[in-house]
Amino acid sequence: MREKFTIANLKDEIRQYRKTYPALKEDSAFVLWFIRAYLEDREEASKAAITGESGDKNVDAILIDERAKQAHIVQGKFRETLGEHSENRNDVLEFAALATYPWQSKAFLEEFYSHLAASVREKFKDVVHHVRLNGYEIRLYYVTTGKCSKHILNAAKQAVGEAKGPARIYVFDGPQVMTIYGKYAVGEAPAVPELTLCISSEGAVRSEGVIQRFDSQKEIESWVFSMASADIGEMYAKAGLRLFARNIRGYLGKTNEINEAMAKTIKNEPENFWYYNNGVTIVCDTAKREIQGGQDVLLVERPQIINGQQTTRTLRDNSSSRASVLVKVIRIPRRDGDEDQYDDLVSSIVRATNWQNYITPSDLVSNDAIQVYLERELRKRGYRYVRKRQTRSEAKALGGGALYFEIKKEQLAQAVAGCEFDPSVLLKGKEALFDERYYRSIFHSRSIRFYLSRYWLMKRVVVISKKNRQRAYAKWFVVKLLWDKLSSDLSNSTARRFRYACEMYYQSREAYDTVRKLERAIEKSFTAALAFYSLERGKGREAMDRQSFFKQSNLFGRFLKYWHSGKNKRREAVNEQIRKFLRALDDLDIED
Fold first, then answer.
1. In CATH, what number does 7-185 get?
2. pLDDT of residue 208
3. How far apart, in whole angstroms, are the C-alpha atoms of residue 588 and residue 514?
4. What is the predicted pLDDT for the residue at 591?
5. Predicted structure pTM score
6. What is the domain partition of the chain in residue ranges?
7. Is the peptide bond before 190 cis (omega within 30 degrees of 0)?
8. Which long-range contacts (CB under 8 A, 24 or more apart) does 17-23 make?
9. What is the end-to-end Cα distance of the chain in Å, rounded?
10. If DSSP codes are grouped into helix, strand and coil, which group holds residue 542?
11. Fewest CB within 10 angstroms: 85, 196, 210, 217, which?
């Protein structure tokens, strides 16, 4: 079941932003979170949008979206309690009036500018320029954890209607803000507010052939039609990566076999693309079919491409006027309290439609709330957590350039399982760990310490194992053995010192010397494991190879008996190195 989020979760998110950017006041940190959750997937661009100065005239942030040709203006009101404080009518209407300003006289604007702080003035002039000269739509967002009456909302919409160009206002009150937070927490953020899908009137399937279906029991409405390949690619150009937040994979790259085949079809036989391709499946919150300038279109709000990411991104770089694509749009209503049902339905559609590229068990959990949580929390600590299968360049672009360590979710699963499970489980392969038998047991904690302590222990064992090929199949025995010895120490405050020592391994002599003591214990543990193999493998034709030997179920119990027996000549040497390692950790001078 999806976790139920409260105002306390949002407060914690705001505190984290203020730790990262100490100069931000609480309202500004709230606005920054909103921009990241709703409008912009790049943190640097989101931070640059914040005004955060006195003299901002209700303008807390200005964000220019050149892809969508929109100018966004945000005012935020963070109230400590959810939905109790009623917003002042004049405050909302004064903010709504900003929608009309780009078309006001020069004298009016000069008077308005004279009351603005310098940085805000330049940002607003940028809005006026794009709206008046480039035809950008102006969008206002009044975002509060308080409440706003329908009368005030209607009055605000009426005020925005006075603008001489395209303009809209969105008023998000407490419950709506928490809905946005819930989507943000599970990775569906920032959402794409709206897209216009042009129904193709060319080719074999014409607009009059649109199939529309309404499920009266579930209130799910669907449309099936064709779109021009260029229009499919343009969706990605306008919305960017956030269009695929619900997708279980990232982009697999131009050299992916299927993506190469799609590009080849577009180039050599574009008229057949509609027949060869599986099409694009989109889920959305609302959809409305209408005629715009003689063009039959479907307006969709908060769309997500859940099948067809490879098609969409391939068509961004390869399109033809003779190629069209089959599109299925599914409008799934969302109501408070039915998040689990919504998630289950979307997940089922994803499983059923994503079969052209092979789906792995780890793909199917890439959008789990715990995976999104780990991605965000590890990013705050300088780690790039890769939860989706994608190209390395895309993972790097999504994670940001200032991150020093990269962990794939498969590696994290191995680290936890290696410390907690029988080693034979690890030898079944990485994907086996994402089977329902193991997955929930592995990813059950929300403690970053829990994961990083296990990850860094595994990392050092793997590094040492690669120095000698004979150690490869024994590494999970060594991980399990050492975790059993170190778990009580690396699960408390010492864990922070351990993480710091591993992170600074190549930068600090003191950290290097500390970790080397652990590595000596690892090396001697490998020697013991291989001695155990030599003793127990059998003789002659009955002798087992290392892979078959270490894959045996319940072998670790036999290894522990050997470990504590007089036959093991390395036990005390390992214990001595562990004692030296823990003393060195206690003495390690770490940065706050």
1. 3.40.91
2. 57
3. 8
4. 65
5. 0.65
6. 7-185, 194-359, 369-587
7. yes
8. 20/380, 21/47, 23/52
9. 37
10. helix
11. 217
